[in-house]
Amino acid sequence: MAPKSAIRANSTLQQQPTDLRLGHIVRLLMENATVVVSGTKIAEEISSSRSEVWRLIQQLRGMGLDVAGHPATGYQLRSVPDLLLPEIVRPLVRGTMFASDLNHFYKIGSTNTAAMAAAADGASEGSVFLAEEQTAGRGRGANSWQSPRSTGIYCSVILRPDLAPSDVLALSLAAGLAVQSSIQQIDARVQIDLKWPNDVLLNGKKVCGILTEMNAEATRVRYIVVGIGINVNQASFPKELLATSLRLATGSEWSRVELVGALLKSLDREYRHLTGNATAKEAILQRFAENSSWVLGKRVRIEENGSAFEGTTEGLDPRGFLQVRTPYGVQTILSGTVREK
Ligand code: BTN
User: The whole model's pTM is what?
Assistant: First the structure.
């Protein structure tokens, strides 16, 4: 067995945020996109040596950045990078609660795990955790979330709302509405369906999952982490996953940068609405029901802890729980998996 300190060192290494100089270099290259930027200029800007610049450029190439050149000639971007670096995402979310603390990871276990740990350490509301790749992405229940490098969006945000724990379900449903609206802002033809509580479907397959976790007292939320995984540019999925990506469904590549910008803006809007209006919860539940083919009149099978029953959905109750009519009366679904019958 490895000594404890070695285990900690390894896991810490994986949780290292991306070197801030990488974002600085990308910004510099983007600001001077039409010219070759000398290694000396970049080295001066980031207070490093030219050989260090070369090493960092190689690292950026490893992340998929298309940069021409070498130390003798200087460097030039060949195309706009689709990396979720703070320098690239921040301008898109200016004016929202998510602009000030953007954390980027090249590779991480789980952005939700990192965000929960940061929240416990006092990280502020609006902190965002974005990763190019997750090695231990988590789904609801005991599920994992496949998170291959730079093809999906793996995003977790920290919220500290003045809400009762019973209102957190509405927030989680609002996150689904935010995902739907962000996708449709980019391509209005994409028909998104919301499956209670937290699946976002496209052509009947899962295109996004949301994992909401919280730390709360009996009557007060301390903090919430909303983790959102969107399948963006994946080219295939194992059949049994019943999953799709935006690329598979539309036939073209999507900009993850543009989508994450739209997502954080929509989430900001939904969150301010929910926390700033007494009647918002009711409106969110109504909008969720309007945008979901699952909430009313769907034959479903509900599975939880090894047991299952069937019925027909009959709307959401005032707290946001799904109601299902069965031969034994209407059941209120607090958790569990909902499948089409
Ligand atoms: C589900 O549908 O089961 C929820 C999936 C949530 C996946 C996202 S990806 C970003 C964040 N980090 C995680 O480990 N999980 C969530």
Answer: 0.91
